[in-house]
Sequence to fold (732 residues):
Amino acid sequence: MDVFIISLLNGLVYGMLLFMLASGLTLIFSMMGVLNFAHASIYMLGAYLAFETSRWVGFWPALIVAPALCGLLGAAIEVWGLRRVHRNGHIAELLFTFGLVFIIGRSVQMGWGMLPEPYRVPALLDFPLFTLYGLQFPAYRAFMLLVSAGMLGAIWLLLKRTRIGLIIQAALTHPDMVASLGHNVPRVFTIVFAGGCLLAGLAGVIGGNYQSTEPGMADAMGPIVFVVVVFGGLGSLAGCFIASIIMGMVSTFAVVIDASVADALRPFGIALRADDLLGEILTVPVARIGALLPLLMMVLILLFRPRGLMGTRDT
Amino acid sequence: MKCQRILAAIVFAVLGIAVSAAPSRAADDTIKIGYVDPLSGPFAATGSNFLKVFSYVLGIVNAEGGPLGGKKYELVTFDSKLQPAEALIALKSITDQNLPFVMHCVGSNVGSAMVDAVSKHNARNPDNRVIYLNCGALATELTNEQCDFWQFRFTANVDQRAVARIKTLPKSVTSVYVMNQDYLFGQSVQKATVKYLAQYRPDIKVVADELVPFGKVQDFSPYVAKIKASGAQSLVTSNYDRDLNLLLKAGNDAGLDIRYDVYLAHQPGGPTSIGAAGDNRLTSVMEFNDNVPAAENNEAAQKFVDGFRAKADFNFIPLDYLTMFRMLTAAINKAGSTDALKVALALEGMKMTDLMGDENIMRAEDHQLLSPLREAVFTKSAKLDAEHTGLGWKEEAKLTAADLTLPTTCKMKRPTQ
Fold:
């Protein structure tokens, strides 16, 4: 029971971090049709910028400075990069963001080196919030939940209750109509791309000291963020939210399951051994193949429901 | 159009000059060693720390007077990224440059690929043979099933460390949680830990036997929750670098109150990760640490330690690296050259006393160095601290080379010439 509740909380924290990253990517993907490969790289950049800012000024200013810088970078990429490449089609945009991954990755390595940086939790938040079944829950994780929930609320408010949100929603499905109504659709695109990068930067600020801040961060987070976006479906923030929570829970709970898939199948009379087909994967404890599960779920949903959970737009 | 042609001509000319500039051949007064270890990726910290260690060791060995009338050792570094494929590319580069030795310390998966590749290369290129100096690929398989004439392991292997670890577990511990990384080394430790627990401490109950993904886990709190729920008194793990540091950090964050009787906490990063919370709760099995010279009354070793503390933030642990280079020097002198076959024959069976006065033997049967191991506890009452934490390693037990002489299943194929 205690393991269940602790894992539930940890899964929630991880899921909300994923949501922060994936929401930006979903918005960008839905509106502009651009799969921003460099999204996880901006997340990494956000973490490094926050580390630098917290070294010179402090953690609290970093919460504002780092995402702002990432947003500005996003705007710059959109105006001077994507807008020009857009003429040449989707593939060109994809290749452009793919190239950005290498540029940003190398720049981080050159700027800060190969070793992990000691980006620490601020002293103000470095205490146990409460003790559950003998294990402490760090206050910083509660802070992470607060920031992610606040951000979720802010996005919802922005999209549903403001004019710009209305325009963004409309441009999501009918960009040409919105343009002919006189709105500056390219500017809306820039705002969305910058907003997505700002969200990624914010995720980096709070995720960088939850995980380790090192040049491999982008490669570690990248795949699972794409899984979340695909699983949740394009054009749907609600789907993205549900998918992030599901993936967060799956990754966390997989660790505590010591039984194997073969054990689950045994009551049905199916006895698997290690040398049967797929037997090697199905007879090891789920904890060992936990990292595989989100990717497996993505493959399954692409097979049976390519639209994703709540997708409103076909891929 | 003409401009472009001239430009192209200039570019090609410059490239041609650059390429044809003679690559620096091994200068007559240096012996180059190709050093392959992770300098990027999740284990970059370990590779970079070992570079500092080798820089110090080679400084001392070269000052003592290198082999063949004072030639100096020089490292040529390659990034393995802890991937066998990358390490093999590095090996190709090393053999292309005719370097006589390849040295590698981190990752038994890389070590296994290296043993195999070196063996094949030497069989196919008898005029350009290379010796693999294994300074840290610990899986016992490398000197059992995979033993090879061209590999020399200069550090205690998994079985030896497991014997040292199990024999020095406190009598008060009756239940352990075994955790290792899910790759060749971790699985080797898993087997050895369970085997020797059954042999030397049948009273200890193994509550769980876990394998964690290698270098991938960012958040160990789910594992910490499992460990707490299991009720084990001690966590016995061979995790290292990030996999250990994040585990210790997660344990601290959650206020996990168990003993850590581990294999590799003495490596750089371990003391910092557990910090003051580890006082008298953490023990590790190591070759040496900064407090050993004082404990065993050895002045020369104390000078050695003082010299290293002036240069680095972490304890000097791998005394076997100093022994390795001293043995290598003796072997090259005996062979009269760096020819791989002659040096290998000279190394086999070599006996040498290390800096602490203990006898080390390079066993000819499987090319495994037999050397002492010490078990130490992390405590405030240690004289010299580790990584500026205020706590340091205090020696509790020592096992000599004789204690750690274990049987081997090696059936080595010897070269015919």
Q: What stands out?
A: The interface with chain A takes residues 39-42, 44-45, 48, 182, 208, 210-213, 216, 218-219, 221-226, 228-229, 242, 246, 253-257 of chain B (CB under 8 Å). Confidence is low (pLDDT under 50) at residues 22-26 of chain B. Chain B has 14 helices and 15 strands. The longest helix of chain B spans residues 44-63.
